Every structure is written in structure tokens, then in C-alpha cells.
Amino acid sequence: MADELGDQESRRDASRGMAPPRHSRRLSDKILIAFHHACDQGDYEVAEQLLRILEMMLTRRPVSPDTNRRRNMESLVAAHERLWHLRHPDAQDT
Description:
Number of strands: 0
Distance between the termini: 71 Å
Helix content: over 70%
Radius of gyration: 21 Å
């Protein structure tokens, strides 16, 4: 019985290794997450560089039509606003 369970686990592990890797998020989403993480850590230089990369990715001509373009651009604008507010904490919203 124990050998049978071990064999099942071995087969399951082998099949996992042969399966193509799954990516649950787009690269642009991961960069946005890294941007927010850098902001949370107070590393504004890294956050700015990540934002530039994200902007380059979202503004270049897409290979295929992206139905989420508006949402992506709104996220980009919100990220720029967050970084600006973090760098200018004394500024008041009007």
C-alpha cells in the first residue's frame, strides 16, 4: 500500500515536471505589482524605473488588439499619481 502511494506521487511529480509552466498574470501586471512593492519599501528610484518600463510596454503598438487598454492606461496614470504623491508629501490635493 505504501509503495503504491509512493508510485502515485512519483507519477504525479513527473507529470508536473513535463507540463508547460503556467503564468497566472501578464508581465505588465507583475511589473505593476513590483512598482507598488517598491513604493511600499520607499525605493522611489526603482519604482520610477519600473514605471518607465510599464509605460513603454503599454504605449508601444500592440501586436494584437487589447480589450483592456483603457484599464491598463488608467492603472498607469494611477501609478504615476501615486509616485508623485509619495515624492511630494507636502503638496495638497486641489
